[in-house]
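I am writing to request your help with a piece of structural work I have in hand. A protein sequence and the structure tokens that stand for its backbone fold form the material at issue. Please examine both parts with care and let me know of anything in them that strikes you as inconsistent. The record follows directly beneath this note.
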Amino acid sequence: MRYIIIFLIIYLCYVILRKALIPLLRTYKLFKRYQKTSNSNAKEMVQDPYCQTYIPKETALKATIGGEVFYFCSRKCLEEFKKNS
């Protein structure tokens, strides 16, 4: 009888731990998967010095003015920045 009670206690502990840990493990796995996909799709953002908007670096207009590299969202912002500097 004592062995049956010990077995039931161990089984109940197993069930409780399983119910508590499996959702945590799933959440952790989903979080890791999200981190991998979000980091691989992340694009470097740069700020347009004229209109102060942020744009992806790969689509920005690049101009070297006075030895410094600047990134612009449009040709208009580039022209206005050149006029004012």
Q: What stands out?
A: The helical segments are 2-40, 75-84. The chain has a mean pLDDT of 83. The two ends are 90 Å apart (CA to CA).
